[in-house]
Design goal:
The protein has 6 helices and 11 strands. The chain is of the alpha/beta class and about 270 residues long. About 40% of the residues are buried.
Length: about 270
Amino acid sequence: MEGAALLERLTAGATALGQRSGEIGGAGPERLIWRAATIRDVRPETPSAKTLLLGVPGWRGHLAGQHVDIRLTADDGYQAERSYSIASAPEAGQVELTIERIDDGEVSPYLTLDAMRGDMFELRGPIGGYFTWDARHRQPLLLVGGGSGLVPLMAMLRHHRAVRSRTEARLLLSARTQADILYRDELEALESDEVAVHITLTRGAAPPGWPGWSRRIDRAMLEEVAPAPEEQPSIYVCGPTAFVEEAARLLVELGHEPATIRTERFGPSGG
């Protein structure tokens, strides 16, 4: 999995769990097929990331937290496939993918620098049943994201907002710098009695007036942000492998049951 797009999933069993993804709206399992996706719009997010709004004929909907595979084919027949988390809420009625550029990658430079409205590529999905959240769940929700690991968590927060969920939700996001924060304006707008957003910056000094932290996620930070273990919150952690492993370890150390912590991690894939 690459940067903001979550490439080359390392979550064990993700492919097998993806077979459940056809069961949207109570329908039976559906064999995943490649579909022609058309870019309807391109929205800048950060200097290195863009969101693609896609039209996908035959799309049956998705769950918050699922992902898709995309396939690009060169003129000489060479193909490259990558997996990208869906950023949009199920209620949006469309597929949005947020892509972060990896400068020496095969796929992300095209999608973030060259792709434009009207361009097409192949898409397969939705995939994944383990790392998903449904607003009908009433336990407190804790989301912990590292950098581009925010993408599937944002789908969950958008789902939470779309259905006007009263479930308490908390987000702890780690970003390199303020300029690297995906969906920054939207995150500020999400702040409410039901949603609390906490951000920590990890590279260099924080900008003047910065209201958040300026260090790596640690035990004290998680203890302050997370609901008490007795509340049995639903916990989702997504980001680079080392980040996910450390966050999960600290949460267990704080008393949270491992079974309540769902993780998704990403690493280098060639972009």
